[in-house]
Every structure is written in C-alpha cells, then in structure tokens.
C-alpha cells in the first residue's frame, strides 16, 4: 500500500490506462526535506533522472534542488533542456561522439575508468579550452558492500563499477577535481556512514586534493524514519575536514510515496494454472 493519503480514495477510472499518476503536493513535501538538507549542510542535491524524468514537473524541482544527474547523452540533453541548475553526467563507458556532446552540455563529467579518462585526453583538452568551467571526476569503488543482492551491488567482487584504490598507484590525476561513489540502494543513513568511513580510510590522501565529492544516490532521505539530522551533521563534518563540496543524487527519495501506475487487465489465459495463481 502506497503511503500517500491522496491515493486512499483515488478512483483509477478517472484516468486513461496505462498512465502514471503523481501527487504534486507529495513530491513537494519530499523536495522540502531535500532542500533542508541542502540549506543546513551546505551540500548540493541533484535529481537522478534515471529514477524520475517527468519533465513536466521540472519547474517544481528547479525551485528546490541544485540540478540533475544523468547517466548518458540523452538524459544530459533532458537535464540541460528541461531543467535549470547543474547537469552532472556519469556513464560506465562513453562513446567518443557522445562524450563530445556531453561535455558541451554538462557541468561535471565523471569517468568510470582511468583508461577512458586517459584515452579521451585530446577530446577533454579541447572541451576544457572551450569551457574552462567544466569539471571532471572519477568514480571510485571502496570495495565495501552494503547491498543485500550481489547482482545489484556495485561493490560486489569483480564489479566493473568504479575504480579500486589499488588502480590509483602512480597515476597522474591532473585535471581531476572530484571523486564520485555510488554504493547504496534505498538505504538508511547507517550504511552511508559506514561507507564514508571506508572511503576516508582508503582515499583520504586523494580527498584532501579534491574540490568536490559526490556521494551518489540510494539515500532514502525522505523516508519517515530517516535520521536527517545525522546526515546533515556527517556532511558538515566531511566538508569541513576535506574542504570539498558534497553532492547527493537521490532518485526515489525525491518522489517517494508520491504516485501510482494505473493499468488494467485486458485478457486472461490458461496454461496449467489459472491467471493469478501463485503456483
């Protein structure tokens, strides 16, 4: 059952099928919590477009958040074209022609490997000459799992998401101004706190050289029992310790308990069991 009073009496026959129905007031209540995190901690909160890309609500998000984070060219186009604020792009691997456009419309571009960062240096230098304000970062892998399902765990053994600390030995990071990690999924503050401790232990020498650190997404900040004050305190401490700007990229948290998908059954069939049987 969705935890939104709007839908307790909602009649799905009022709308066509299939369609998403979103309670704008419920979304705004979530955004107020995220705005409070920004204002009290100094962090900047971005909407993860891969989680929610309903651009008709862009003006609402623009009033509360600092921009969008995107996972490729088409989301970057959406973030730049429909939303205001910054556009931060991370992709597990870039095509050269798409990266060229991404660097024209993004404010931060994050690479998943040192190999791609090095391979595209001529393209990167050209983009930097045209847009000196463009920032570049690397996704790190702290090898610290907080997830319960290995296939969805970016820190699972053998994961190709993020760069482990061992790969940074003797690497020239000239031009890199920030680090990014994304290790959580629909989780509370405690897993983030434990992850940050590992990140600091492993990458502390690099953190002191950075301008910004992106904590990624997966934070259930707008859940009723989430300890928002503890998050704010931890962000403040982290920013002061390393003199960096912290970014958060909530997706589901921005629209938690704010909508439903209306569908209908068009037909039922039989094959050894009736439709709806759990078997």
How does this model look, in words?
With about 280 residues, this protein is an alpha/beta fold. It has one domain (about 20-260): Alanine racemase (TIM Barrel), CATH 3.20.20. The chain contains 9 helices and 10 strands. The strands form 2 sheets. Strands 2-3-4-5-6-7-8-9 form an 8-stranded parallel beta barrel, surrounded by 4 helices. A two-stranded antiparallel ribbon has the order 1-10. Strand 3, helix 3 and strand 4 (about 85-90) form a beta-alpha-beta unit. Helix 1 (about 25-40) runs parallel beside helix 8 (about 230-240) and helix 3 (about 75-80) runs parallel beside helix 4 (about 95-105). The protein is globular and about 60 Å long.
Q: Rg to the nearest angstrom?
A: 20 Å
Query: Uncertain regions: pLDDT < 50 for 5+ in a row?
Result: none
How many distinct folded domains? 1
Shape: globular
List the main descriptive attributes of the protein structure presented here:
35% helix, TIM Barrel, 8-stranded parallel barrel, 279 residues, 9 helices, alpha/beta
Reconstruct the topology from this structure.
Blueprint: E1 19-22, H1 24-41, E2 44-48, H2 58-64, E3 67-70, H3 73-82, E4 86-91, H4 96-105, E5 108-111, H5 114-119, H6 121-130, E6 135-139, E7 178-180, H7 189-207, E8 212-214, H8 228-242, E9 245-248, H9 252-255, E10 259-262
Parallel strand pairs: 2-3, 2-9, 3-4, 4-5, 5-6, 6-7, 7-8, 8-9
Antiparallel strand pairs: 1-10
Helix pairs in contact: 1-8, 3-4
């Amino acid at each position: 059952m969705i935890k939104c009073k709007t839908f307790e009496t909602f009649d799905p026959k009022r709308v066509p099928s299939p369609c998403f129905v979103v309670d704008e007031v419920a979304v705004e209540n979530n955004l107020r919590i995220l705005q409070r995190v920004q204002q009290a901690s100094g962090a900047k909160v971005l909407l993860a477009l891969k989680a929610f890309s309903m651009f008709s609500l862009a003006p609402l998000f623009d009033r509360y958040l600092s921009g969008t984070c995107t996972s490729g060219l088409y989301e970057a186009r959406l973030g730049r074209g429909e939303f205001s604020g910054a556009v931060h792009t991370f992709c597990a691997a870039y095509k050269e022609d798409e990266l060229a456009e991404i660097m024209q419309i993004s404010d931060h571009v994050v690479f998943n490997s040192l190999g791609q960062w090095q391979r595209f240096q001529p393209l990167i230098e050209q983009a930097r000459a045209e847009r000196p304000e463009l920032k570049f970062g690397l996704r790190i892998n702290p090898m610290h799992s907080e997830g319960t399902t290995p296939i969805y765990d970016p820190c699972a053994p053998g994961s190709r998401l993020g760069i482990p600390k061992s790969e940074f030995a003797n690497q020239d990071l000239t031009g890199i101004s920030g680090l990014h990690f994304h290790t959580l999924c629909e989780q509370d503050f405690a897993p983030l706190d434990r992850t940050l401790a590992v990140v600091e232990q492993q990458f502390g020498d690099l953190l002191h050289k950075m301008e910004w650190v992106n904590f990624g997404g997966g934070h259930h900040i707008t859940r009723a029992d989430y300890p928002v004050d503890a998050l704010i305190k931890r962000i403040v401490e982290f920013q002061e310790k390393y003199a960096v700007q912290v970014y958060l990229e909530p997706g589901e948290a921005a629209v938690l308990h704010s909508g439903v998908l209306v569908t209908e059954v068009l037909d039922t069939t039989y094959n050894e069991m009736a439709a709806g049987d759990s078997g």
